[in-house]
Structure formats: C-alpha cells, structure tokens
Design a protein that fits this description.
The structure holds two protein chains of two kinds. Chain A is built from seven helices and five strands; from the N terminus they run ααβαββαβαβαα. By secondary structure, chain A is an alpha/beta fold. In chain A, helix 2 runs antiparallel to helix 6 and helix 3 crosses helix 6. The longest helix of chain A has 17 residues. Chain A is globular and about 60 Å long. The longest helix of chain B has 12 residues. Chain B has a five-stranded mixed β-sheet. By secondary structure, chain B is an alpha/beta fold. Chain B starts with a helix and ends with a strand. Chain B has one domain: Beta Polymerase, domain 2 (2-Layer Sandwich), CATH 3.30.460. Classes of the chains: A alpha/beta, B alpha/beta. Chains A and B meet through helix 4 of A and strand 9 of B. Bound molecules: iron/sulfur cluster (SF4). Iron/sulfur cluster binds next to helix 3 and helix 5 of chain A.
C-alpha cells in the first residue's frame, strides 16, 4: 500500500503524489487479481461461499475467469487426486505469467485426511506446482481465505518489476549474508 | 412382502440356486444365491407382479479375504418392500453376470465394483474403470492391495 499511504503525508499535499512507477503497477496488479474458476472437493463449497454476497470475494478485485489464459492466480481448493494432478499441472502451465497459486485446505497443503491411506491423493499440491500462499484448515473458513488473499496481495505489492534480476540477486546476497552470520 | 416370503417364493422357483437365507436381529435379512443363476433370479424379481423390484438402490463389491462378493440392494417403489441379494465368487476368477440390462443403475455401480475390486461383470457393455485413471494398476479396495510408490512420476506415499 505504498502509494495510498503517501496521500496522508502533508509533504506531498496539494494533489501531487510522488512515488515509484513500480508501486503504481503493483498496486494495480494486486487489486485486480483474476482467478481461475476451479474447485475440487469439499473446500470448493467454502470457496463458493467466499464468492457469494456474504463474504464477497469481488471486493478484493477478484473476478472469476473460466479460461486459464486470462487468470492471474489459481486457488487449489480441495483434494488433489493423481487423476486431477495432471490436469492441474496442465492448467497451471497454460496460465500467463505472472501467475500465483493459493493452496486452500489441508488436502492441497499436505494430503489432509488422506495423508496416510490415500493411495489416490497427491500429498500436497506443491509437489507439482509452486505455491505462494498456504491456507490451513479443513475446510478453511472464508475469513481464512480472505486472509490468504490479503497475504497474496502483500506479496504481489513487494515484487520487483524493473531490474528484476539485479534486485533479486542483491536480495539473495543479503539473505546469504544473514544465513552465514 | 416380507423377506421370508420372498425367499420361499424364490426357493420354489429356483431350488438349489438359492444357497441360503439369513435372518438375524439388527441385520437386514439377505439371500445368498449362485452366481450362474443371478441374471435369471434378478429378472424374476423384477418382472413378477407381486415382487416388482423395479429399483436397484445399491450394488457394491466386497472382499471377504478368501473370496470376493457382490451385494445387491433392491427396492420396490410401488410395493414399498426391499430385499438383499448376495453372491460370492473366487478371487482367481471373479466373474459375475451383469444385471445392467435389468436395472440401468447397475451400469456405473458395476464399473465401480470392477474398478475397486476387479470383479468382472459378464455382459456389461462398457466395463472400464470409472474412478481411478484408466492406466491404474491393481484394485485399491482389495484387502491385499499394496499402494504403488509412484504414479506418472509423482510420489504416492506421504
Ligand atoms: S481439506 Fe478438508 S474440507 Fe478441504 S478438501 Fe480436504 S477434506 Fe475437504
């Protein structure tokens, strides 16, 4: 929220906002995330509740898209069976960059109730696609999914757009320094 | 009609093909029949006016460790009575005649029993797996099933 905070700052008053282009782009990106209309198991019911008027997913700027090519992120809401896992991977690969993944519920986080005897369940969707936000619960309440969405927006807000390689390399170097010390 | 009466009717009609009738407290009474005669018995149960079992509410596979079995739950919508049939087949050659042509609901149920237990239903028009992927190996609900280590490069155990 770097951009909007500047409105409160008297130094920048008079209707002039000084900020980085990156902040504006990220602000727009994070506030209009479109998701792939895709539900899997019982968690999808909670996900549907999230879409309905009471919890109102659309106030986050999230609009369902029925094509992966138009979607910014995908919510893996439920049990990922092996049969479905291959299709999820295909859908994820069809999405355009930048793309994000929210893993919703114990099942897609780690196999959930099927972790031990589920011969047919992939034990965590992060074994096939990278996950940005994990939402715990079986099923998570819509409030929990809201929290996950806010976390995803925070993540998008902090992402580098320009000089990406250079900046990521610097950050990696700093992380290494922290780890080594 | 009570299960006892239906059993007596079947016994009079099919004789030795009706293997046993069991009635215990807390359990639904059922009739064990020979698999070879299953199709005829089913047809008789459906088409006799005073029995009129027009609805197969459940068909399920079973694993009795030595043998495999199939259970049929029948219901008559008009006469409001129900009945249970059971058949047992050996694990080496689990073949049961299909009742798909008698009750349409048996179609997917038989495919599921095939998918989970490997019971082959003779006469079914499209006996392929229904839940597991088509290239899945083994029959998961059998008691001696061992889950694979890998499926298409994805690790199966936790
Ligand atoms: S986490 Fe729980 S509620 Fe969600 S899909 Fe799995 S079993 Fe269903």
């Amino acid at each position: 929220m770097g951009l909007l905070n500047k409105l409160d700052d008297p130094y920048y008053g008079g209707g002039i906002i000084l900020g980085k282009v990156e902040d504006i782009l990220n602000w727009g990106r994070s506030k209009s995330d479109w998701y792939l209309q895709f539900g899997l198991a019982c968690c999808a019911i909670e996900f549907m509740a999230m879409n309905a008027s009471h919890f109102d997913f659309m106030r986050f700027g999230c609009i369902p898209r029925t094509s992966p090519r138009q979607a910014d992120f995908i919510i893996i809401s439920g049990t990922v069976t092996f049969k479905m896992a291959e299709r999820i991977k295909k859908l994820y690969e069809q999405m355009a960059e930048p793309k994000y993944v929210i893993s919703m519920g114990s099942c897609s986080n780690s196999g959930g109730p099927y972790w031990e005897h589920g011969y047919h369940v992939l034990k965590g969707v992060d074994r096939i696609i990278p996950v940005d936000v994990y939402v715990p619960g079986c099923p998570p309440r819509p409030e929990a999914l809201e929290e996950g969405m806010i976390r995803l927006q925070e993540k998008i807000n902090q992402q580098a757009i320009f000089n990406k390689r250079k900046r990521i390399a610097e950050e990696d170097k700093q992380k290494e320094l922290i780890i080594n010390n | 009609m009570l299960a006892q009466e239906i059993y007596e009717k079947l016994k009079a009609e099919f004789g030795d093909a009706i293997i046993e009738f069991k009635q215990e407290p807390f359990f639904d009474p059922f009739v064990q029949v020979a698999p070879e005669k299953l199709f005829d018995i089913s047809l008789y149960l459906r088409d006799t006016p005073e029995l009129d079992f027009d609805y197969l509410s459940l068909l399920g596979g079973m694993d009795y460790k030595e043998n495999l079995g199939v259970v049929y739950h029948l219901y008559s919508i008009k006469l409001k009575h129900s009945f249970i049939l059971k058949v047992t087949v050996s694990k080496d050659n689990p073949v049961v005649p299909s009742v798909e042509r008698i009750w349409r609901s048996a179609d997917w149920h038989e495919r599921e029993a095939y998918d989970m237990f490997g019971i082959r239903f003779e006469g079914h028009h499209n006996l392929i797996r229904i839940l597991c992927p088509y290239d899945w190996e083994g029959f998961p609900l059998r008691k001696d099933y061992v889950q694979p280590d890998e499926y298409h490069g994805m690790k199966v155990p936790y």
